[in-house]
Amino acid sequence: MPSGIHNRKRRGRPCHIRVRYLPGHPKAHTKQRIVRAANHHTLPNFIGRYFAPRDDPDEYPMYCASMLMLLKPWRCLETDLKQPSQNWESAFADFLSTAPVETKKILSGIQYFHECRASAMRQTMSVEMVHTLEGMELLPEDGVNDEGHEGERQAMLTEETLTDLVASQQTTREEWHGLLAIEAAKIAKIFDGSESDLWNNIVGSNTTEIGTMQLGMHSVRMTTAENLRNLLLWKEQMTEDVQKQNPAMDTAHTTLDNPATHGDVEMMPSGEVPKPNSATVRYLGDTETSEESLTAVDPTSLRYDQFRAYDIITAHLDATLAGQVPPPLRMLIHGEPGTGKSKAIQTATEHFIHRGARFMLQKSAYTGIAASLIDGKTTHTIAMISPRKDQSVSAESKGKLQAHWKHIQYLVIDEVSMISKSFLAKLSRNISIGKMEDGIQTSRTIFEEFTTVVTLKEQMRVTDPVWQDFLQHLRVGQVQERHIAMLWTLVLTNPKCVETDFSSPPWNNASLVTPRHRVHRIWNDVALRKHGQEAQSIILECQAEDTIKGQPLTLRE
Ligand SMILES: Nc1ncnc2c1ncn2[C@@H]1O[C@H](COP(=O)(O)OP(=O)(O)OP(=O)(O)O)[C@@H](O)[C@H]1O
Q1: What span, in angstroms and rounded, lies between the C-alpha atoms of 493 and 489?
Q2: What residue ranges of the chain are covered by domains with CATH 3.40.50.300?
Q3: Predicted ipTM?
Q4: Membrane spanning segments where (predicted)?
Q5: Alpha carbon 368 to chain centroid distance?
Q6: What is the pLDDT of residues 367-392, one digit of tens each?
Q7: Ligand 1, from 290, 367, 414, 460: best to mutate by most atoms within 8 Å of Cβ?
Q8: Nearest-atom index, ligand 1, CA of 460
Q9: pTM for this one?
Q10: Which residues contact 361 (CB under 8 A, 6 or more apart)?
Q11: Which class does domain 299-456 fall in?
């Protein structure tokens, strides 16, 4: 309650009302608060991101918590904003039911930003669409001369307009990033510039060349019988691999529950048996790329902390398999890069295999590369999360999720730091649907359940002490000036860059890590030609053909 109001008469503007702090406050005897005059306006300046939108169901709990914190008077964050029994949504609904009009106006003002932004985005998108469509050639329907039929003109989609449309979606800026990366690579002598002429130089050693035709910088030659045979084999193997990768999600291939198929022996039609002397199919991934999965080690070779993590997981599995019902294992394995987290996962997987329980384990990571390192699948695939804004799960997807998750009891997510809180909530929601569990948890609840934490400390990959020092500081957000200076010496375009011979090991096998799709595509293209040049191999380029439910896409799709 206000106290200590000053009523002394003074010249000039009347003094603002002053209020003492409550007794017990550390400043109670030395300071006072000034009550602002009725017409005083304070413009709050919020640091950080703007408030969450109120119409996004995934963000709504965050919106309610933020609005309560902003508008409801509180002294103690933990107790004053909501009752322990309430969630943020119901606490906010209670608050709103008695909130004055002024408060509701503030709430509308905050939401106004999101409405303006959504409207601006809609407008930009439709302007871009109009431009793209305007850029398309207008063709008369059925090729009939359209004189006098202006009203019947319509934009016809052709392969060319589609290619133009795709090209128009590439921003020049992204293209520049890619080209500059190649230029930087040429300065560093990673590429010598001859890669673009590669196809002009190759002379097939074991092919019967029928004809060669120059087309720009690439030479095109007629295919040989062997090329064709290889191509068909690759196609076959890729189809097989795709099916092998996705059997569980494809209910047509899920036979676990069909007793009729148990123990069936299927005879292969003799024509389908691969000929022993046919051309071999070898993926680069077998030996030459970083996407090869990590191998397990003998558990006795695990480092002390790795073994602790391994022991916790395997003991839990053993208890489950013994028919006990141990509490769910919510576990985090922390550790700076290179401390062997993935290796521990792979070694624990071996135990699942050894116990005949591999089908109970799902391994996953946010990106395909990270997932392939542990023989897992992407988090989007295992939870059937599409990039669409519409987050509803169709009945068909529910069925597939339930078929997929039916026997899985353990989920391992590698590189979990890539997963945002909102994505984790979506993951949790869809997996709950798959496991047919009620009560969808929100992100915070999920985080709070992870009470078993093992931190790996021994560095297994990085031996360079300077880099190790940098990684340790980076991980806890304490990068120093000396680290920045060190990083600058690694920038290829910096004249003071430490000279590196990229033509000899280990640097001739170094991978480029880039967050930009365009850089990675252009780089891969040039690197592939360099590889072909060195290996004296022909590069066959096959365009992927997308399908929807097994059917080829129509032009409009
Ligand atoms: N116990 C071990 N014995 C032998 N090699 C190991 C062992 N543990 C890890 N390694 C090796 O150390 C390297 C780093 O291991 P790993 O990829 O598992 O680390 P990580 O902590 O998952 O790294 P990141 O966070 O970058 O993914 C790998 O080459 C792995 O084979």
Answers
A1: 10
A2: 299-456
A3: 0.98
A4: none
A5: 9
A6: 888 998 999 999 999 999 887 666 67
A7: 460
A8: 12
A9: 0.54
A10: 349, 352, 408, 409, 410, 411, 412
A11: alpha beta
